[in-house]
Amino acid sequence: MKRTFTKQPAFTLVELLTVVTIVAVLTSIGLAATRGVTEKTRATRCLNDLRQVGIALQLYVGDNGGRFPNTSHQGVAASWTNTLADFLKTNFLGRCCAVLKHRSKLTYAWNDSLADAQGYGVMASSFRGPSRTMVVTELATNLTGEHFHFAGTRGGASRITPNQFRGEVNVNCHGSSANYLFADGHVENLRWTEVQSRLTQPNSSFLVP
Fold it and tell me: 158-190: buried (b, 16+ CB within 10 Å) or exposed (e) per residue?
């Protein structure tokens, strides 16, 4: 008996390479999307941390006659994290989850323009616009400490240049932006271009209340 064989269809080399290419592209898109979700999640967690500080700040100011917290500066020993300790949740670490490796114990730092030369907090009533004055943001990765040195910069805090600001702040902590807590307790995610605009506005209250 003569046996007949049916030729089975098979992929050509070109078809195989096409499939492999498509799979690789889809995989890269999936990984990029996953990274995007992860970065957004970290930015959101950071925003929530700063909101927690904002709530603690408002409670502290209300309990202390309208005075802002001290900074560990010019002989005042208490850090703002210690000053606000009774109002912060016990799980508050003071570190942004988006910065896995940082030289400083705290990756959030305080605007030292909100304290006098001895480090004592200023009065809330002295603010020109609480919603426009930054209190806490991300510390540059090459620095350590719990507060910025805007008040001690040459020319005074009202003359901080964008380059000086960027030297102390991790302005691109979340991709092309960072999170900022303001004196009225609200938090914003701001791109560096927006921060530069606020810094260079005439009579800006972004750093100086």
Answer: eebebebbbbbbbbebbeebbbbbbbbbebbbb
CA angle (140 as vertex; 134, 143 as ends), nearest 5: 115
Q: Are 146 and 184 in contact (CB under 8 A)?
A: no
The gap between the terminal CA atoms of the chain, to the nearest Å, is 101
Report how far residue 67's alpha carbon sits from residue 77's, in angstroms, rounded to the nearest whole number: 17
How many C-beta neighbours within 10 Å does residue 1 have? 3
- pTM value? 0.78
Give residue 65's identity as a one-letter amino acid code.
Answer: G
What CA–CA distances, in Å, run from 54 to 19, 51, 91, 136, 187? 52, 5, 15, 9, 8
pLDDT, tens only, 51-80 = 999 999 999 999 999 999 987 765 666 788
- Exposed, middle or buried by CB within 10 Å (0-12, 13-18, 19+), for 109? buried
Tokens representing residue 63 in the block: 């309990």
3-state helix, strand, coil in the chain (%, to 5): 40, 15, 50
Residue 149 has pLDDT above 70, yes or no: yes
User: In what side-by-side order are the strands of the sheet with 177-182?
Assistant: 108-110, 134-138, 177-182, 187-191
